[in-house]
Amino acid sequence: MADPIRWARYRWQRLISTEGRECSSNNSSGKCYQSSKTTGKHRIVIPCLGHFKEEYEKVSKLYMNNKIRTTRYTLLNFLPRNLFEQFHRIANVYFLFLVVLNWVPVVEAFQKEITMLPLIGVLTIIAVKDGLEDYSRYKMDKQINNLVTKVYSRKEKKYIDECWKNVSVGDFIRLSRNEVVPADMVLLYSSDLDGICYIETAGLDGETNLKQRQVVRGYSEQVSEIDPEEFSSRIECESPNNDLSRFRGFVEHSNMDRVGLSKENLLLRGCTVRNTEAVVGIVVYAGHETKAMLNNSGPHYKRSKLERKVNTDILWCVLLLLLMCLTGAIGHGIWLSSYSEIPFFNIPRPDGKLSPPTLAGFYMFWTMIILLQVLIPVSLYVSIEIVKLGQIYLIQNDIDFYHEKTDSTIQCRALNIAEDLGQIQYIFSDKTGTLTENKMVFRRCSIAGQEYCHEENAKRLEAYQEMDSEDEDSVDRQCGSSTPTSKCQGHSDRAVCEPLNRKSSNQLSGSYSAFKRQDEAGDIPHSGHMAFSSPIETDVVPDTQLLEKFSQISFRSYQQSEEASSKLSLETMYITDFFLALAICNTVVVSGSNQPRQKVRLSSLSRMPVKSLEEIRQMFQRFSVWRLSSSSLPSVKESSESPSSFVRKLSIFRMKLASSALDGAAQRVSEPQNTDSPENSQVPGELRLVNVAAGDEPNYAVSSAELSPMPKLCYEAESPDEAALVHAARAYKCVLQSRTPDQVTVDFAGLGSLRFQLLHILPFDSLRKRMSVVVRHPVSKKVVVYTKGADSVMMDLLRTASEVHTNNSEIEEKIKERTQQHLDDYARRGLRTLCIAKKVMSDAEYSEWLNHRFLAETSIDNREDLLLESAMRLENKLTLLGATGVEDRLQEGVPDTIQALRKAGIKIWMLTGDKRETAVNIAYACKLLESEDRIFTLKSQSRDACALVISKILEGIQKNASVKKKKSEKLGNVSASPSTQAQRFNAGLVIDGRTLEHVLHDSLQNIFLELTEKCRAVVCCQATPLQKSVLVKLVRSKLKAMTLAVGDGANDVSMIQVADTGVGISGQEGMQAVMASDFAIPQFRHLRKLLLVHGHWCYTRLTNMVLYFFYKNVTYVSLLFWYQFFCGFSGTSMTDYWILILFNLLFTSVPPIIYGVLDKDVSAEILMELPQLYTTSQKSVAYLPSVFWITLLDAFYQSLVCFFVPYFTYCGSDIDIFSFGNPINTAALFIMLFHLLIECKSVTWIHTVAIVGSILFYFVFTLAVGATCKTHNLRSDFYWIMEKHMTDPVFYLVCLLTTCIALLPRYLIRILQGTLFPSPVLRAKCLVQLSPEEQRKAIKRWKDECNVNDRVELQPTSVPSSSAAGAASEEESIDSVLPESKTPFQTCSGDGLVKNDSLPDIQDESGCTSGLNSEKTEFIKGN
Questions:
Q1: Which DSSP state fits 943?
Q2: The pairing of beta strand 436-447 with beta strand 934-939
């Protein structure tokens, strides 16, 4: 076949038809998918048209329509369903039981209506809250369901406007640009000539970069829009699921041919169509069966640790209640038995008989339960919910969490675990995008064993200062332009440039505002919103040595390199293929900047195939950057300037050239004229050179006929690594110009415009750790596989010496060896590394692989396994081209945050997929590991060896600890000095992904956790997302520790979900981690205040409020219990029933809520300065079991005082029962409210208003009840009681004396604690009263004391060697573990990194890590 595209399609058709015949001839074949056997497990989708009418009616009944309903209730079921859900709480069931019990005449304690008040009040409040929330969801559902889209009508034979709710499976939908997809549908037509639809998935995952979706194979060649009436195929796909990254199925045509479907053919509900005028698709999932709705799990509901503890303590209160009721029942029976005659108050039953004392005691047991019901705090749950909402409100409105650069702040997605932030013991953190900025900057590369350091680029990065935030924002919006430019005047020899001033910056900002206003009006979003497009990422200054070699590449030299095997030819081939791989081995979407987010398409002339080698050679000579023949500017080789000065000038021009002059020069260069013409000589030479050489996009595209103008390009990548590599290739004039489903166009400086036929893309996955593209090379016409991936897997896929059929086997082995050295060096410098390789296939090999690939793509069951197997068949016997080193800088404030969290007693684990050296270097840079730490690198190939190594490490640590202990004992009395105290052993553990597989086995989990507990930091490198989640779950379950997981990408979702608290960082990789998290923060540094301040406050406030509720209820119930000893345990109350029920529900409920929301034991500034204070909440000091029981004992004491002081005051008088109970009630109110004042750490005017308001409300209510409520029962008449006491001086004296005696012990204890035995929190609180200068000195002294106590005396004791395990061969001192030089990222060198630091390997492999030869090496010579 002459045309490669036709040849590939012909091969596909032959394979499809062959497989169809095999399936029809052999039904028992296991490889052929039989739809009839699995109809129940899969979905069959057919169009709702005339010729499918009968079958459609049968199938469509099984599927949902597109109407959604996220509400929980309807008008009819709201009341019963809401009550049903509320009675899932045990407390509500308990109080319902009491209401029912009070309706039994024998055990009735109150009026029937009064008992119902607490329960009705709580249920009503929660029902109103649920109803308002559900109504807001109803309005949103109604708005979405009534959106309009174009649906094909089989009656009218055209597309008509239809509401979303009326869309069904099998409908044809037609969408225009900027419309939202109403349901999951398979793409059958796109107005794009290449069959591509560009979508924005911000509604699903928060990613704003454009993504490509392709028309189903076989439909992309249609010239006109698809006619639904002519669609005669059926679709079979998997059942609805929530996996956004997977879609399996096939289209079966009427001739039984099948075409596989993948996620690339599926438009998901909620996505927005961009850059495509019209698309048509058929709906496969609708309504609640769409992937978006299946992922909509609603808000997160977790039970906090404090809530579980509260439930346990409520059980203790239940036991206390049962004990009191049992005492009352027994006492009542004994009291009745003490009467020899029938007492007058013992009323007979209706049959005239008396109840025996035993039965009367049994009845009294239930009466006492009704009477003492307030011991179980029914209002506590409601108060906790209100307090948590208040705390969340304060967190979300903290201005310190606002990040101006990203215009984002904290999000609290889980409303009921805020207090868990104060008890975190372990933090599991991702590295990329979490600790680092996720801005990938190209730093170094190695090609064919030769390293290129890019020193000029490193100097640019050192001097680069992101300007100020205003200037940087304007720069980011240039999209593809390297730097902001100002007016520039140039002449033949030099260019005079002015830097960007404030005025031009404001003009740029104004232009962006205009774009923003257009965006809000519904226009195309501006490209400035793209991720991975800041100048620091897009600007790359070429390496002078590589630039010189690159300039020598021509079409002829590259063609000769394919045939020859000389040193120069091989180097040319390696360099060319290396940059071609950087440019095309990705999924980057190319768009233009003049028309934002508009796909770039080559003109018809530029798309013409290259026909002659001579034409390419002539064009290369005419327009080659490095051979510009100008009277004013010589070429690179002819220039008298050195290469370094030349590149330095390029970097200056990149920062300062004006866009007007640059565009004008580019426009003149793009004119099809001879370079020797007078017109061309008028173009400033520097401008023409910089426009191409410095990395800006060329404004022209080379074709065989003539030049066609090309706009500036924007690259929209799904990951920052891809963007960094594409921009690096662009800096060397290997420019990715366009991408379609069938081809990729690259403008290569020495080869012209190359159009690669794109055969397959094997995307990156966490299992393979690599991605590949299969293309047909336009020069050699061969099938070439370009692969990039992690060196841990790529090195094993390279072809061996025996598989190399040429005399280059020795050269390839040397390339592999030197590249590995460079990779290790890059990793030590903290760079992210990737290996680049290629493989050339014959047509026969490709056809054989294509056969297996087709079977995998058209299968539904086990599709992932089959696709993985086909990828493994392709990605082997690779030829190593080189490697790249990309820097990902730390976020601002990460080292200080980690140090503060470690001082707070939190252990931090870093879980990353990067290789060991990179992870360790970043760990030192962020101060997770420190220079005095002893680092153990655990690397084992078997489970037994891993167990032996861990045992040896533990023995060494224990031996070290015992030696220090003996030394400390010898010191005797001198040990009182902090500097001579025996210190703990500081160790860090580094473990890779393969070893993790061993330690996560059940037999090694305990010993591994024992080791990690002795280490202050753990770094897990090359870990998969599954291993991350298993580690978090292991620590959480085995160690019973409170865990927090923080990450920013989709690979961190599983880890975030299994932790007690999940924190997502709204970085550049979308919002999947944020949507799965409980809290979302803009930067890692915000974790410091979230935990140390708000976590401490939330936990302290809530625990104190819960303890106060228990104290308050026990105190009040005890008053009723003490009275039973004086009324024959008859279940009588000395208080009016209304006051009794409302006392806890209204009179004393608001102050503790205010206390729980606003109380501050220590100011935020001091909590940030002294992280050690976090340990008080971390260790639950405020809510220990002893604190709970001491609180209850204090409650019993205060109730005794509150009861017996009025009792002895009025003893012997003739006052009635309510006149006796009123002083007790009033004194109890004062005692409880002033008790709260004693416990408050900070009293504001809000506290004062709440307390005074509660007292006034109590008096107003009791006065009103006493004046209006008169019953017919003289014994229980509350009429005018409070009015009489208000005029009695004894009443005031009793209340005052009772309050003072009851609160005196607690008040004295608090005074003694604050003076003689102050806690760290009390000491910190006193710092607020000092002057600013004294406060700084006191904080400094405090920090010095903590540093002395935490300082580690490292002894030259090491882990003993283990020959069986292949551990370190000798005992080595701690000083030899790490050099005494500055830690990484702290030196003043060009790289900002330590150039050589070695780590001890504890591994089961013999040998040690060899050092690197930092000297530059030449290209490997063949022997």
A1: H
A2: unpaired
Q: What is the 3-state secondary structure (H, E, C) of 237-286?
A: EECCCCCCCCCCEEEECCCCCEEEECHHHEECCCCEEECCCEEEEEEEEC
pLDDT in tens, 492-531: 333 333 333 333 333 323 333 333 333 333 333 333 445 5
Nearest to 832, CA basis, from 532, 436, 534, 1410: 436
Contact 454, 907 (CB under 8 A): no
Which candidate, 712, 684, 700, 568, places its Cα nearest to that of 622?
700
Check: CB of residue 1344 under 8 Å from CB of residue 976.
no
Give the closest residue to 619 by CA, choosing from 742, 500, 748: 748
Question: Are 414 and 408 spatial neighbours (Cβ–Cβ below 8 Å)?
Answer: no
Task: List the helix and strand counts (H, then E) for the chain.
Answer: 48, 39
DSSP summary character for residue 1348: H
> What are the phi and psi torsion angles at 426 (to 5°)?
-130, 135
Cα–Cα distance for residue pair 805/124, rounded to 1 Å: 83
What the block records as the tokens of 218 is 């076989």
Phi and psi at 279, nearest 5°, equal: -135, 155
Q: Three-class SS of residue 171?
A: coil
CA distance 200 to 519: 14
With a cut of 90, say whether residue 785 has pLDDT above it.
yes
Q: Which residue has the tokens 């009588």?
A: 1132
* Cα 1035 from Cα 1020, distance rounded (Å): 14
Q: Dihedral of the CA atoms 423, 428, 430, 434 (nearest 10)?
A: 20
Cβ count near 1052 (within 10 Å): 31
Does the active-site annotation cover 430?
yes
- What is the rounded distance in angstroms from the CA atom of residue 203 to the CA atom of residue 206? 6
| pTM to 2 decimal places | 0.70
Token readout for 994 is: 């393969």
**Rounded to whole angstroms, how far apart are CA atoms 754 and 555?**
11
Looking up tokens 């055969």, which residue turns up? 759
HSE at residue 1052, side-chain half, CA atoms within 13 A, is: 33
d(CA 606, CA 708): 6
Spatial distance between the Cα atoms of 684 and 492, rounded to a whole number of angstroms: 5
CA dihedral (456, 462, 468, 470) in degrees, to 10, reads: 40
Specify whether the CB–CB gap between 1143 and 1119 falls below 8 A: no
- Looking at residue 1113, its amino acid is N
Which has the closest alpha carbon to 924: 537, 1343, 1381? 1381
Q: What is the pLDDT of residue 11?
A: 44
Using an 8 Å Cβ cutoff, are 559 and 432 in contact? no
Residue partners of 140: CB distance under 8 A and separation at least 6: 70
From the candidates 184, 205, 420, 430, which is the catalytic residue? 430
CA 661 – CA 546 distance, rounded (Å) = 28
pLDDT in tens, 19-74: 333 333 333 333 333 333 334 568 888 887 766 777 777 777 778 889 988 888 88
d(C-alpha 405, C-alpha 474), whole Å: 12
Q: What is the DSSP string of 513-533?
A: HHHHHHHHTT-PPPGGG-SS-
Residue type, 515: F
| Residue 39, phi then psi, degrees to nearest 5 | -60, -35
pLDDT at site 217: 86
Long-range contacts, 356-360 (Cβ 8 Å, 24+):
357/332, 357/333, 358/333, 360/332, 360/333, 360/336
The two beta strands, 234-238 and 249-252, are antiparallel
CA atoms within 13 A on the CB side of 1110: 26
What is the token pair recorded at 234?
């059926």
3-class state of residue 1020 by DSSP: strand
Rounded Cα distance between 471 and 474, Å, is 5
Dist CA 181 CA 202 (whole Å): 12
At 898 the three-state DSSP class reads: helix
Q: Is pLDDT at 628 greater than 60 in this prediction?
A: no
| 552: its two tokens | 């020598």
